[in-house]
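Lab channel / #folding
Pinned by the channel admin:
"Please post every new chain as: sequence first, then the structure tokens as a reply. Keep commentary short and put observations after the output so the thread stays searchable."

First post following the new format, from NK:
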Amino acid sequence: MTDLVVQPPQSATWQVHLDRSMWVGGVRGLMLQALHPLAMLGVWQNSNFQDDPFGRLRRTADFVGRVTFGSPEEADEIGRRVRGIHRTLRIRDPETGRTHRVDDPELLLWVHCAEVSSYLEVARRGGLGLTERQADRYLREQRTSAGYVGLHPEDVPGSCAELAAYFKQVRPQLRVTPEAVSAVRFLLWPKLPRELRLLSPGKPVYFPFGALCYYTLPGWARRMYGLLPEVPQATVTAALKTFRLGLNSLPEPVHDLAFMPATRRMLQGARERLGAAGYDVGKGLKGLTDPRRWPKTAA
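Reply from TO:
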């Protein structure tokens, strides 16, 4: 299996990363990441986030897809590309005058933990039935993804308890900066990339989605931002479950239109490799979360 995809269909990672709640988790992760002043400055100074925040989400989806469903060669290639880009970038802190590396391990670890915690929390809250043991397994598996961006897997939280301890440790370093506020506002009302401009007339319906992402943030993060009035969390959970149910009902070819063309080609390659290996891909990659679609040797 290791020569087909990085993470096999038997992994906890497939259960989480094939769940359509990942779109909420991805935006929530960006909102959470923005609370680290240096990490937010790194994005602000070295990307076109101000012009295309949705594009950054799609590029993140491409990375996550390749280190989950791509071949080992595809994952290695994008890992080298990301590490190479990060190696050349610097962050200028106007308050201290210091210059920091984008690939500073502490910053990479923050981005990783904010991201995977968001994917896991949103999926479970939305109704994905993962046990605590499976949630721990997911975080252990995500150490592989952390390795692609240059982190040492042993330095990355590999359980829910370790992740909670990490957030407790890092919270004193977090604060709301003007860049963080602007980032969240962009995410609540984003500029669509050129290839999706045909959807612009429906843009007003995006705000409820952005608000849903915001309201799934931890309470301490929402209190720090204070950008939207609080609503009952039971209402947020119900809305998240409804959103997840609706997106999970979309046929895979329709859902995949949200990805960049290169990501769609990578996913098609994964279907072809797995189909040739005896997996029943008649219902796409998402169908492979059902063990009955695996070859007997993989069960």
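NK: The beta strands are 90-92, 99-101.
TO: also worth noting, The longest strand covers residues 90-92.
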